[in-house]
Every structure is written in C-alpha cells, then in structure tokens.
Amino acid sequence: MKPLTTCKHKILTFALFILFFIPAKQLFAQAELMPYGNLNGIRIKGQLMEFNTNLAVVGENWSKVRATAKEMQKPKFKRNGDTEIVNTNIDSLYFTETVKDIGSGKISVNIKCEVRKDTTIKGIYLGIRLPKEIYGTSTVDLNKVNEELIRPRGETGFQTDYAKGITYTAANQKFSISLNEAAVILRQDSSAKNHIQLYLPIASGSLKKGEVFEKTYTIKVSGQVDGSPATLQLDTAVQGSPFAGLGGNFRLQNMKTDPQVIDYCLSNLRVAWSRVEMPWRNWQPDMNTNPTATADSGKLNDHVKKSMEMAQRLGKMNIPVILSAWAPPQWAVEGPLQYRPTPAGVWGNPLNKANMPAIYKSITDYILYLKAHYGVEVKYFSFNESDLGINIRQTGEEHAELIKGLGAYMASKGLKTKLLLGDNSDATTYKFIYPAMNDPEARPYIGAVSFHSWRGWGAETLQKWADAAKQLNVPLLVGEGSIDAAAWAYPAYFEEQSYALEEINLYTRLLAICQPLSILQWQLTADYSPLTGGGIFGDDSELKPTQRFWQLKQLASTPEGLFHRPFVADRKDISCAALGNATGNQYTLHIVNNGAARQVHIKGLPSTVKQLVVYVTDKKQAMKQVMKIDVSDHEATFKLGARCFTTLMAK
pLDDT value at position 61? Predict the structure, then answer.
C-alpha cells in the first residue's frame, strides 16, 4: 500500500493538470442560465449572443400564460461541471431543466415535466424570444419534414410549421434550434413589438397524474464578436458627493455560521458603513414592562445582547452604525403579526397609532441603552422596507409622521440619532419618500436617504434617488446592496460568474448614477455569503472567498477621502465609475466589462496622475495586479479583458 501523502500528491497533480490544460470552454459555462430556468443567451469570447427562453404553461385559447420568471416560482439550482440543473414547478407541473455546454456557442437543453395532478391545458411550451433589434430583418430557414404527411392545425395569431428545427440568420448573428424529433413550431405574428416569439410544444391537452414528458433541444449561436476599441471619458472639473466606501449589513440570523464570515470580512475588507438589527419584539415584548429595567436585572434577551455586541464591535472599529427594526412586538402594530404576505399579497402590519408614544419610547430606550452600556452612538434609525411591509407597513404620509414624531422624541432625550428617509425595498417605490421630503417639519430629523437595490435598475429610476438626496442636501445610502432577493433559496447561484458580474455591474452603475455615500452589501454574514464552505448552505468544505468576495474587496479598496467624478464609456456593455480627491493626485477608476476583450482608451486624466496600477477580478483572477500603465498627455491605453471587473488606481 502506497503512503497516503503520495496518493494525495498524485491526485493534486492530476487536478492541476485538469485545471490548466483542459480548454477553458470545457471548464466555464457559455450558456447564461438563470436559476429560475430562463436562458439569457450563449456567450462567445465573453460576448452574449442574446435570446431568451422560458417554460410556459398556457390555458385554453391562450387566455392565461404562466411562465418561469424571477421571483415567480420557488426553483432550485445547481451546477455539475459544464452542466446546470434547475428544478421548479408551475402548479402541479414539475420541471427538471438540464442545460449543458457541448461546443463553441452550442448547448443541449433537456426538459422533463412530471404531472402530479390531473390537468387540462392548452399546452406546455418552451418559449423562445429573439430580439427584433438583432433578428428583425433576418432570413428564416425551417428543417421541414414531409408536409404532405402531417399538416399542423392553425393557431390564431401564429404561423404554424412542422419541422425538426428553425434557423434565423441576421446580419451579424445566427440562431438555430434543433429538435430531437419533428414537432410543431409556433411563430407569433408581427404584433410583438420588441421580439420574435416562438413556442415549441412539450405536452398538451388532458394530462394525467404520473405522466412524464421529455424533450431535448440543441441550440447554437454564432456571430460577430465586437472587440472594437472603447473610449472612456473622465471629467475632473466636476466634483460630486463623497464616497466613504463599501459598507455591510450585519443582521445576525445564523448563529452557527455567521461568526466566521463576519470575522473574515472585517479582517479582509475595509468596511466604511454598517447596518445592524434592533430585535424589537425581543427587546420589549410587553408594552407594560420596562425593557431597560429588565436588561439591567441581567435578563437581556440573548438575540438582543448579540445584536448589541455586533453594533459594539463595529463601533469600536469606528464604523458608523445604522440601526433597523424588522419584526415588531405585537402591541406595537394593528392586527395579528404578518411575517408572510396575505392571500391578497399584503405584507406586514401598520403601527398601532394609539400606542405611538410607547413606540417612540421603546425605540429610544433601546438606542439609549446601546449608547450607555455598549458605547455605540447610533447614526441613523429605520424600519426595514416599511414601504412594502417587511415587517412594518407604512404609507408615505405615515412615514413622514414617524420621522417627525420619533425624531423629535429622540432629540428631546439628547440623542444625535436621526432617521433614514425611505430605506425602501426597491428603487421603484420612490414616491414613498415624497411626503416627508415635502414636509418642512420632517427635514430636521432626516439624516440620509436610503433604498435597497433589489429591483429598479433603470437609469431614470436611480436618478430620482440621487435627486432626492441632493434636494435635501443629505447623503444617499444603498441600505441593502445586491441583485436577487430570492437567491437564498438557490445559494449555488452565488458562485456563478453571471451573478458575480451582474452584482458588481450594478454597484458600478449605482456609483456613477446615484453617487452614494456607501453601498451596504447584503450581507457580510452567512446569509447571502460572499464566502463558501465552512458549513454555509450545507457546504462543509474549507471556508474560502468567492469571486463575489474579491469583487467586493476590490471595490472596498477604494481609498478614503474620494469624491464621485463623471466617467462615461462609449460602449453599452461597459459600465464605469470614477472617484478622485480634491487635489487631483489620487484617483480610482472602476470598470466592468460585460462583453469581449478590447482595447480601452481613457481620456481626461489629471496632469497629477502619471501612472495607473491595474487590478482585475474575474473567473480566474482574484484582485490580481496585472500591470501598470503610464499616463501621457492626460490619456492612457490598456487591454481590458473579457467579462471582468477592473480597477485602476493612481498613486
């Protein structure tokens, strides 16, 4: 028997051979599959050859169409090498979708549907959308079978064909899908404005419990990869608002796995801002008790104690602390506590107006206790996502009244703590903050404007938040930063390159459009963890950073004392943001390339900057210093890699 160490050495050597000598296309996915089962397209050399798929269940006469989509089902996602698997369901129809990369620009899609209840429907379809911007003038070729043998029944609003595949050839791209057997292909008429719609039937009619339907498709794309040079223009003459740096949420939810993630993040990231929980229902479950006296008697609730210790730890690191309440005590709200939406889709509970004086006192007592016993001066207070009701629900007018009432009460007790305006669930609900914005009595108690970045990423929507902060002359905070509020249910997706790039791409756009004081990552704990292993989400391997962590570290490495500066790119698949100090000798430029590799030419650099150090995080590189580039006559040129987060620092 050979020594164990020798066996391990051979295994390691073989693993390294696999890593470095198998072509990259076999190691890293080309298909861009969302965790709910929809394909966004296939990437070639980093460029997305765009199309979209979904699984659609159609009622009679096409009167009702239910399809896989973000936050519409409860899917599960996993990866096995170059194969991705999504399990999901629409009512009693349970799907297993398996997507595998099988060549350059080529994937196999297998869909299996299990019927768990007798069901009568028009059909189950693989839906495909091709953007008209690309394929609107393309030629169409069908791989037809003998039409004399089978004449498909017509469908209102559709052109109906019977074929083993269909190909669309446009000027710069080509899309084809092949079926493993001849079938009906429905092509929507010209009424669709922005896309060409196809439906490929999987099953139809009266489906019986226990039946299983399975289809396999081969999708191939090809086209011109755009690697043309890009120009990025910096404007040093305009100084925006300050950027303190990356922040983090530290709401304790996983007492077993949270500590290791928190320790790692606080040891390896420069955290500029923080947000912790006020476990309100545990602090004062009974309105008629004195929570301060209870705590002083040694009966402080354990979750409250740990949350206060978390705030204390952050305070000792000179990190400003935001305090937010999620779950209220029963006495503070109207109706039975709601932690899930009602059948009508309503979340949370409104505050009990009759108990507002007791509510103000309870919250203020917590903040005073935290200050007196843990040395923490809370910067801002908020109810988490009260526009939606997670878990306290308010109207905009009620939010304005809370700011005035609670703000005045805290000030009367000698606290410097102010309130966050908003702390909204999404950027889309910006009208929620307008009543308080337009109330002069509320303004003295507004410390900052805050929203969460789960939804609403359009530039016009994001600009409204920047405008609100500017109008009030207070900082803007992204109180919770990330991109998928349901991702905790399919945590394997956190390790996907597509998730990592989309997250940092959004942060770069937030910097450029909103000019926030900080983006507070949700979370720097085991929940939505930027680390993997250590028992997190059932992974018992060694604790280690993911691509997301290294991107956060690269962003967090932005030096203190910098201000937002205008920085724009002439390519739509590049996002960029710039930060510089007042003297002009220190600049940090963040660039996300969502496409192919290309030369980048930067213009408008200050005369004080002579050299830029380039750091890159992507699927293979972890905040690696890849080069130094010289600046000449206010300009610099370098090669930007495909699908990467690149930061240039002037020192």
Answer: 84
